[in-house]
Amino acid sequence: MIEAPKDLSETAESDLWDVVVVGAGPAGANAARSAAEAGAGRVLLLEKAELPRYKTCGGGLIGYSRRALPEGFDVPVRQRIDAITFTHDGAKERTRRDKAGDLLVLVNRAEFDLALAKAAVDAGAVLRTGASVSMVDQPSSTGPVTLNLADGTSVRARAVVGADGSASRIGRYVGVRCEQVDLGLEAEIQVPPAVAGEWAHRVLVDWGPLPGSYGWVFPKGDVLTVGVISARGEGEGTRKYYRDFIKRLGLESFPTVSDSGHLTRCREAGSPLSRGRVLVAGDAAGLLEPWTREGISFALRSGALAGHSAAELARRARVGQDGGSADAGYTAAVEHLLGPEMQAGRSMLALFERHPAFFHRVVTRIPVAWRMFADFCRGRTSPARLIRNPVAQGLLRTLPKPAAEEPAVRQVGADAG
Ligand SMILES: Cc1cc2nc3c(=O)[nH]c(=O)nc-3n(C[C@H](O)[C@H](O)[C@H](O)COP(=O)(O)OP(=O)(O)OC[C@H]3O[C@@H](n4cnc5c(N)ncnc54)[C@H](O)[C@@H]3O)c2cc1C
């Protein structure tokens, strides 16, 4: 474990900050760093936990995540991945390797998030941990935003970035609407060296038994991160899948370091990303790729954009101007960068829900399809580019057409909130 250095926490003389960021995950840490680098004078990063803190997450970094990291950032790598074993509900196992390596880079989220928070502090932000924001108040368009903390104190900001994760208070304040809510269950399992050796540099992806579900084993040395994800409404089925998955991998007898669940939420297209001087980023904004539920690259990218726009909002507030187009600019930038990726992810998920066997077959049997999957992991292509790829379109045309009256597999919006 990396220890939080003492000078990460600091008491401010004044409670008025240019930019206050709520939540020190990848979105918040990157927002605070980007705001500081964009010239916001005083930037405060508030985190309710003490760092390093645990986060339920596979810690898989695709190429887009790696590229969105601060320049010179030293990734605390736990494992580099050059092979993926695929199964379909435990059957039809096949491993694909890639000589170029680094399909995924695996991190321990506690270490990774602490390193990102340090990068924000190095850029000039002040980090305050054990600070849980309980309420937001924004009385006028030019005056400061007040954030009340659970300990009864408050801070004021010329601009706020809410990056407080998928159960976001700031997201509720802004009015973020989500159309897809999934439940992820995950354990960190301590394994002996012989078992760790079997998993070295290789992950497992299991296309699951429930529509849109999948499971994974992400090895991190003597600990394996093992999890499953499925639609939230399938709670009991998801728990059964999780128990069966761990059992059939022969991992149930090893000690479990942690065992937790977490909801992921994907925003509805067009859902708000700001309210006045308050912007939201990452999971707080429902920015997540709907098919794989990959969210770290979305958090890093939206966080950087939000920090930049918050710095501009603060600069305008300093000279008594309203926000101008800074909030609209943020929304437009996120829609431009991430909107098409989410749209493509939704389409991929809809296809995957109906045809998991097809996904398994093409990725394990058709070399060009495996290369596309590998390129997606490595960040050489994205869901939006994949779905437009003529080869991918050709493969998809081989699928049977859905009957016109066939109901949607996933009931959109049913679980949101
Ligand atoms: C089981 C599972 C596995 C996943 N695996 C992967 C993966 O392998 N790769 C990938 O790319 N994505 C993965 N994701 C998604 C990824 O974890 C998230 O998208 C990502 O963490 C979002 O980052 P964030 O900064 O927006 O939010 P978070 O990482 O959730 O950070 C939010 C922070 O805000 C703090 N906070 C919350 N409320 C308050 C408050 N009121 N006041 C102050 N602070 C507050 C929290 O303590 C937390 O530190 C996974 C998700 C799940 C559920």
What does this structure look like?
The chain is globular. The chain has 12 helices and 18 strands. The protein is of the alpha/beta class. Strands 1, 2, 8, 9, 10, 11, 17 and 18 form an 8-stranded mixed β-sheet that branches. A 7-stranded mixed β-sheet has the order 6-5-13-14-15-12-16, with helices on both faces. The chain has a domain of 191 residues: FAD/NAD(P)-binding domain (3-Layer(bba) Sandwich), CATH 3.50.50.60. It binds flavin-adenine dinucleotide (FAD). Flavin-adenine dinucleotide (FAD) binds next to helix 1, strand 2, strand 12, strand 15 and strand 16.
Topology:
Elements: E1 16-22, H1 26-37, E2 43-47, E3 60-61, H2 63-67, E4 77-81, E5 83-88, E6 91-97, E7 104-107, H3 109-122, E8 126-129, E9 133-137, E10 145-149, E11 154-162, H4 169-174, E12 178-190, H5 193-199, E13 202-207, E14 214-220, E15 223-231, H6 235-248, E16 256-267, E17 274-275, E18 278-280, H7 296-318, H8 326-354, H9 356-365, H10 367-378, H11 383-388, H12 390-396
Parallel strand pairs: 1-2, 1-11, 2-8, 5-13, 11-18
Antiparallel strand pairs: 3-7, 4-7, 5-6, 9-10, 10-11, 12-15, 12-16, 13-14, 14-15, 17-18
Helix pairs in contact: 1-3, 1-7, 7-8, 9-10
This protein binds flavin-adenine dinucleotide.
CATH class of the domain at 6-57 and 109-176 and 271-341: Alpha Beta
Biggest sheet details? 8 strands, mixed
Query: How would the global form be characterised?
Result: globular
Gap between N and C termini:
35 Å
The H/E string reads EHEEHEEEEHEEEEHEHEEEHEEEHHHHHH
The CATH topology of the domain at 6-57 and 109-176 and 271-341 corresponds to FAD/NAD(P)-binding domain
Oligomer designation: single chain
Q: Percent helix among the residues? A: 25-40%
Rg from C-alpha positions?
Answer: 21 Å
Low-confidence stretches: 1-13, 411-417
Bound molecules: flavin-adenine dinucleotide
Class from helix and strand fractions? alpha/beta
**Per CATH, which architecture of the domain at 6-57 and 109-176 and 271-341?**
3-Layer(bba) Sandwich
Number of strands: 18
How would you name the CATH homologous superfamily of the domain at 6-57 and 109-176 and 271-341?
A: FAD/NAD(P)-binding domain
Q: What amount of the residues lies in strands?
A: 25-35%
Counting H and I runs of at least 4 residues, what is the number of helices?
Answer: 12
Mean pLDDT: 92
